[in-house]
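From the thread on structure requests for the teaching lab: each student submitted one protein with a one-line request. Submission from student K.M.:

"Model Universal stress protein from Mycolicibacterium aubagnense, tokens only."
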Amino acid sequence: MGSYQTVLVGTDGSDSSMKAVEQAAAFAAQHGAKLVIATAHFHEVEKGSWARPAAPEKASDRRAEDALGREGYRVHGDAHVYEILHEAGQLARGAGAIDIEERSVIGAPVEALVRLSTEVEAELIVVGDVGLDSTAGRLLGSVPADVARKAKIDILIVHTVD
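Reply posted by the TA:
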């Protein structure tokens, strides 16, 4: 592993992904690198549509307003994307990271991380090990294995499962 200026980590708000955020933050702090924290989601809400991006001020349908979270992020499971990123950012600061960017990315997790790594010119992607040792992970693929296959930069897979 060489010198890192930008480290990218993805989170879905789960405990294991937050452990990866914490490890990535500590690593970024040790190397004086910028930390980009990302969460992937499929679509945001637009007036009259449930499939295209929109700004909060364009959401006049009451259902759309309810589906939009703070800062215009879409609801992601039981938590807003904004809340996931905010919590991850707080955790990263607690682990010593100073230069932190929080990003919401539309797309499936693997493709979103790989695409974002190019966009932010990351030299390292940090992912948790969830799914690596499962039967489903071996048969269908897992986020860490798929990122390792598709990314053209260094990957750090951290142990996040007890």
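TA comment: Residues 45-78, 132-141 have pLDDT under 50 and may be disordered. The radius of gyration is 16 Å.
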